[in-house]
Amino acid sequence: MIKIDGLTKIYNNNTKKAVTAVDNLNLEIKDGSIVGLLGPNGAGKSTLIKMILGVMYPTKGFVTIDGKNTFNHRKQLMNDIGIVFGQRSQMWWDLPAMDTFSLLRRVYRVDKDEFDMWLDEIINEMDAREIVNKPVRLLSLGQRMRCEIIAALCFKPRIIVLDEPTIGLDISVKEKIRNFLVYLNRKKNVTILLTTHDLTDVDAICDRVIVLNHGKVLYDDTSSEINEKNSGKNCEIVYAPHGREKGDFPFEAETVDISSKKIITFKGDTSDVMKAIIWCSQHGDIEDVNITKPKIEDIVKNFY
User: Fold this and answer.
1) Interior/surface letters 46-67, b for 16+ CB within 10 angstroms, e for the rest
2) 104 and 244 belong to one structural domain
3) Confidence of residue 296 (pLDDT cuts 50, 70, 90)
4) Residue 67 zone, left/alpha/beta (φ > 0; ψ -120 to 50; rest)
5) pLDDT digits over 8-42, tens only?
6) Closest CA to 155 of 190, 119, 129
7) Cα angle: 148, vertex 151, 152; to 5 degrees
8) Is 139 in the same domain as 279?
9) Strand pairing class (60-65; 68-69)
């Protein structure tokens, strides 16, 4: 278990006033969970990650993994945590990815037979067999990111931290990485901490969402709870040309005129939507109706 107790980080600068990047956080992350860590730039996500990894000393409070302080016991815990930075590489640029994997096996002192079996499994699951023997400089961004994740897992860590792993990737590669992370969590019980601005990742794989802003927790609950609490629908009704409504709306809505058409948009639950559609059909000729759920992006923006 990762336990964060009263964690605070204040940056002091002689030319500027002190900046509180992380402000008295108290969190627990259970083993085997997938947690999405969200927040705008400057929310404190990267600072929090660095303190969880033990590479930054907090101003106050502490982070422990299974009771061990991550800063004081960083060397003891290094075999337990894998890390992937979407913007930084741990691969040797001119060498095949397999050479980096072999080097990491020696660095982390993993038994060769155990390593070979584990590496073969995750290469297959990541569908990376055809790319791991190519020089890293010849790989596409998506191919390199798949190899970066494999490299972070070479020593079979219990926890993996991914900092925007799908940034800039196409849809098919994102889907492949998401499926692999779900496999890793469900089959191998690996705890995953994911920071991202792509909220589709969160909606697809995370069982818990933590939203940060200005170093504080704005929201901490399950991803399904986010959708349940925001179960309203967006409805757009388009009147046919010359089929405009007669009378004032008995509901709150926004309207816009485009050519000879009028488009009405409003929000509400299923019952509200049906009542509005019935009213509009009785007061004009409807050409089209479009009903959608709010995007998770819009829901999270409201927390900010």
Assistant:
1) bbbbbbbbbebebbebbbbbee
2) no
3) low
4) left
5) 999 886 667 888 999 999 999 999 999 999 888 88
6) 119
7) 90
8) no
9) antiparallel
Residue 136 and residue 221 in one domain: yes
Tokens read off for 294 = 């709010």
Do 280 and 236 have their domain in common? yes
Note the pLDDT of residue 94.
Answer: 92
Structural domains of the chain, count: 2
Split at pLDDT 50, 70, 90, the class of 281 is: confident
Contact present, 100 and 148 (Cβ < 8 Å) = no
Q: Which residue, among 126, 161, 129, 158, has the nearest Cα to 145 in the 3D structure?
A: 126
pTM: 0.76
Looking at residue 288, its pLDDT comes to 81
Domain range for 263 is 232-303
pLDDT in tens, 168-220: 788 888 889 999 999 999 999 999 999 887 777 887 888 898 988 888 998 88
Q: What is the CATH number of the domain that holds 238?
A: 3.30.70
For residue range 91-143, list pLDDT tens digits in order: 899 999 999 999 999 999 999 999 999 999 999 999 899 999 999 999 998 89
